[in-house]
Specification:
InterPro entries: DHFR-like_dom_sf, RibDG_C, Riboflavin_Biosynth_HTPR. The chain is 22% helix and 30% strand. It has helices at residues 32-41, 48-54, 71-79, 113-122, 134-139; strands spanning 4-11, 15-17, 64-70, 90-94, 106-109, 127-132, 146-152, 160-161, 172-179, 185-191.
């Protein structure tokens, strides 16, 4: 069965963005050996435009072949005139407000999101990258098999949480931790099923 990986940027105190969803304050940390990591080891989760800018657009995917994101996350690309922000992956957008996909590479998931993700997980293929945001991650919390948290060395105090969900305890096992010269940590956790 395919795994669903929530690969997310977060502050030390667990917020993925300001209350408005803005996360541009993380960008100054995309430097040095952390930038090298993103380009050389995590390029699959970068938007196609970033892959192009880094010169890795043609690199084959080995970890993920699909991405699911929420309507608000997808809107950022649409506002920039991009209808397929992850063209190197099969794209799914969870939305009840978009009735027709603006791009042949993007499938709109408007019905039962959990059932749709369970069906994706049963299909043959590589992993599924959960792009975000908080509401989508909250709806899919029980389906997440792996967390990859890029923890930036900032404290926000409040904002958009990693999971917009009701209280519940879900145990994960720490699989790895990497630290970078600019203070960023990348922690990988796996759910024991």
């Amino acid at each position: 069965m395919r795994k669903l990986s929530y690969f997310v940027a977060a502050s030390i105190d667990g917020f993925i963005g300001a209350p408005s969803g803005d996360a541009d304050f993380f960008l100054p940390f995309v430097t040095g050996d952390f930038l090298d990591y993103l380009r050389d080891e995590a390029a699959e989760v970068l938007p196609t435009a970033a892959r192009r800018a880094f010169g890795v657009e043609e690199r084959a995917t080995v970890e993920y072949d699909a991405v699911i994101q929420g309507r608000a996350s997808y809107q950022i690309a649409l506002d920039a005139g991009i209808t397929s922000p992850y063209a190197h992956l099969r794209e799914y957008v969870a939305s009840r407000s978009i009735t027709e996909s603006p791009d042949p590479n993007v499938e709109i998931v408007s019905g039962d999101l959990v059932a749709a993700v369970r069906e994706l997980k049963r299909q043959e293929g590589l992993g599924i990258y959960l792009c975000g945001g908080a509401d989508l991650a909250g709806q899919l919390k029980d389906e997440v098999d792996e967390l990859v948290i890029k923890t930036y060395p900032v404290v926000l105090g409040s904002g958009m949480p990693m999971f917009g969900a009701d209280f519940g305890v879900d145990a994960f096992t720490l699989a790895s931790v990497r630290s970078f010269g600019n203070g960023v940590l990348v922690r990988t956790y796996r759910r024991e099923r």
